[in-house]
UniProtKB/TrEMBL annotation:
It comes from the Bacteria. GO terms for cellular component: plasma membrane. This is TRAP transporter large permease protein. It is found in: Cell inner membrane. Pfam families: DctM (PF06808). The chain crosses the membrane at residues 12-37, 58-81, 107-135, 147-171, 191-209, 236-258, 300-318, 338-356, 363-385, 397-424, 436-462. InterPro entries: DctM, TRAP_DctM. Keywords: Cell inner membrane, Cell membrane, Membrane, Transmembrane, Transmembrane helix, Transport. Belongs to the TRAP transporter large permease family. Residues 12-461 form the TRAP C4-dicarboxylate transport system permease DctM subunit domain.
Length: 511
């Protein structure tokens, strides 16, 4: 006889065991869920009919989810743009623009990384493209190798945070509770503040390093700066204007309410195709590029769907053995209140990211933590949301999601498992030591962790751009008020169709 309170931790242990054996994550989730479902049924914790919820959720909540259609659209857009030569032109023109400044190539990599992050959303392509273009130039100019590899990896991973990041879309889909939910538009609005501040931190670190260690970041020789004046600005604008147009096509339509995330993703994909066609002279095989983009999109989309199916199987069984209550009790009783909760969660996610990528973390961990986050973080934001509990709950989920997104950037950077470091190692010359790549990543991981602390300490970085509805919301059918006075009792047959209703907690009273 296995006690019910042992089942949730045993399920996590079983999941880890399946993954250590070598099963793919999606099938490990399915295997752990079905294995412990058999134990729960034999122990009479729930009936076999309870498992009907698994196919209902898969077909009703995963395959019928319109929001998830945005993933293949944005993936296709990124796959097209990463090979159409836009990165090369922007890096070259920005390098010329900032070349006379110490650390100029570092600034250009940071700025181009931010722009590419807003139009591609793929870390691998961004790191590889910028490393192949910029690293040889940095080596030729005598840049410190640890700084050069670190800034390339860090500027590639910021695509995780800059809208329209796939991470933000996935988190918006998973951060849904009975009290509130985080939509994609709110996640995008909330991510702008931290992403811009992070770019500022990266630039500040480059500036300070160029002042205290000028030999690390020398200015480019004048002989290498061929473009000047209007010719230079024209080349910069030829790269920035198409990018800005595509960014507005995708993000502007979402934030202005013109299009849903799925519709904006479709427009972004068409915009990427149009941009590739306009730049066809720089693309040797446009048809082959499109075929590769379709294949890459299919692989990533299938991976996401299989992980979602596996996580649905695991989460249904986990909830069936009171796993949600176990997680809530585990994190609600931490010392320090909401601060202790966010610190513990971020430390947990930081170390979990050593072994799992953001898809697994988002689909397995985030849905379990979302109810606890709403319970503990909503009171912190209640005053800034004009005392509106529902707005505070939704804002708390956005704050929590952006916080995790900033944290999960480090999963690509921290040694020894950071994928961005592997991508960098694969394209760097042999004279670049692996130790330089790993040691070079550490200062940038530190900057990313500083960003996590800033997002925790200053929630306004996330919530400033969010809608702040008034505490009293009136509509045609309902009046929402905090009145503590009892409503007048009147006979039900005298109530008109348009009689207002006073809501106190969850108990409506007709007046």
């Amino acid at each position: 006889m296995i006690p019910l309170e042992w089942m949730p931790p045993l399920m996590f242990g079983g999941l880890i065991l399946f993954m250590l054996i070598g099963f793919p994550v999606a099938f490990s989730l399915m295997a752990a869920g079905l294995f412990f479902a058999g134990i729960a049924i034999s122990e009479h914790y729930f009936d076999v009919l309870f498992l009907q919820a698994i196919p209902q959720r898969i077909f009703g909540g995963v395959l019928a989810n319109d929001l998830l259609l945005a993933i293949p659209f944005f993936t296709f857009m990124g796959a097209i743009l990463e090979r159409c030569g836009l990165a090369e032109e922007m890096l070259d023109s920005m390098g010329q623009l900032f070349g006379r400044v110490r650390g100029g190539l570092g600034y250009s990599v940071i700025i181009v990384g931010f722009i590419l992050g807003a139009i591609t959303g793929t870390v691998a392509a961004q790191v590889i493209a910028m490393a192949m273009i910029s690293l040889p130039v940095m080596m030729r100019y005598g840049y410190n190798m640890r700084y050069a590899t670190g800034v390339l990896a860090a500027s590639g991973t910021i695509t995780q945070l800059v809208p329209p990041s796939l991470v933000l879309i996935v988190l918006a889909d998973q951060l849904k509770t009975q009290s509130g939910s985080a939509d994609v538009g709110s996640m995008y609005l909330g991510a702008w503040g931290p992403s811009l501040l992070q770019i500022g931190l990266f630039a500040l670190y480059t500036f300070l390093l160029s002042r205290f260690r000028p030999d690390y970041l020398p200015a480019a020789p004048e002989s290498q700066l061929a473009l000047r004046g209007w010719c230079l600005w024209k080349k910069c604008l030829l790269g920035i204007i198409p990018s800005a147009a595509l960014i507005f096509l995708v993000l502007g339509t979402i934030m202005t309410g013109i299009a849903t995330p799925t519709e904006s993703g479709a427009m972004g994909a068409m915009g990427a195709l149009a941009l590739a066609w306009l730049r066809r002279s720089n693309i040797p095989d446009l048809k082959g590029l499109i075929e590769q983009a379709y294949q890459n999109t299919m692989r990533i989309t299938c991976m996401v769907v299989f992980i979602l199916i596996g996580s649905t199987c695991f989460s249904v069984v986990f909830q069936g053995v009171d796993g949600g209550q176990w997680v809530e009790a585990l994190f609600s009783d931490l010392p320090g209140g909401w601060v202790g909760f966010v610190v513990a969660v971020n430390v947990f996610v930081f170390f979990l990211a050593f072994f799992l990528d953001f898809f697994e973390i988002a689909f397995i961990i985030v849905p379990l933590l979302a109810p606890v986050a709403v319970k503990l973080l909503s009171p912190v934001l209640l005053a800034s949301m004009n005392g509106n509990p529902q707005a505070a709950a939704s804002a708390a989920l956005v704050w929590f999601g952006v916080m995790l997104c900033v944290n999960m950037q480090t999963s690509f950077m921290h040694p020894p498992f950071g994928f961005a470091l592997f991508y960098l190692r694969g394209v760097t010359p042999k004279e670049v030591k692996s130790s330089d790549i790993y040691w070079g990543a550490l200062p940038w991981v530190g900057l990313q962790l500083i960003m996590v602390v800033l997002v925790i300490a200053f929630p306004a970085l996330v919530t400033t751009l969010l809608d702040k509805p008034a505490a009293l919301i009136q509509s045609q059918d309902f009046n929402f008020t905090n009145s503590e006075e009892p409503a007048a009792a009147i006979p039900a047959n005298n109530v008109g169709d348009d009689a207002p209703v006073v809501f106190r907690l969850d108990k409506p009273t007709i007046k």
